[in-house]
């Protein structure tokens, strides 16, 4: 069924929802997990073009990814991490294609129309542009 699941994490309380669900799914299927966080601040979006150093936000994101990885590995899961930089939807799509995943799992915030226009609709973009199934769970 699923061998490798990409889990989009935000470094926010919303991550608990998706991590709880996906860890149960991975346990049932024996899938490995690929945790991806997309840093999307100014420094992250311009990192390569301007040859910038990592921002404090990016450093904190790396620490967070490592903490989540260690917690899941302690539960017996095989886990990889990736800190991507730029537009979240674009980077999640790119990671799913480059790293050969069978499923993308992410939480949503239940925004509708105006908030989607203002805050973006990462989940909708990913869902419509990838070739693998996308599991969306509303954040608690």
Short summary:
48% of the residues lie in helices and 22% in strands.
Describe what you observe in this structure.
With 140 residues, the protein is of the alpha/beta class. It has a single domain, classed as HUPs (Rossmann fold), CATH 3.40.50. It is 48% helix and 22% strand. The protein has a five-stranded parallel sheet, sandwiched between helices. Helix 5 runs parallel beside helix 7. The chain starts with a strand and ends with a strand.
Global Rg: 15 Å
Please give the number of β-strands. 5
CATH C-level class: Alpha Beta
CATH topology: Rossmann fold
Q: Percent helix among the residues? A: 40-55%
The dominant shape is globular
**Whole-number tally of structural domains:** 1
Order of helices and strands: EHEHHHEHEHHE
CATH architecture: 3-Layer(aba) Sandwich
Mean pLDDT: 82
Q: What is the secondary structure topology, with strand pairs?
A:
Elements: E1 4-8, H1 15-29, E2 32-39, H2 42-45, H3 47-50, H4 56-74, E3 79-85, H5 88-98, E4 103-108, H6 114-119, H7 122-129, E5 134-138
Parallel strand pairs: 1-2, 1-4, 2-3, 4-5
Helix pairs in contact: 5-7
Kindly list the characteristics that best describe this protein.
140 residues; alpha/beta; globular
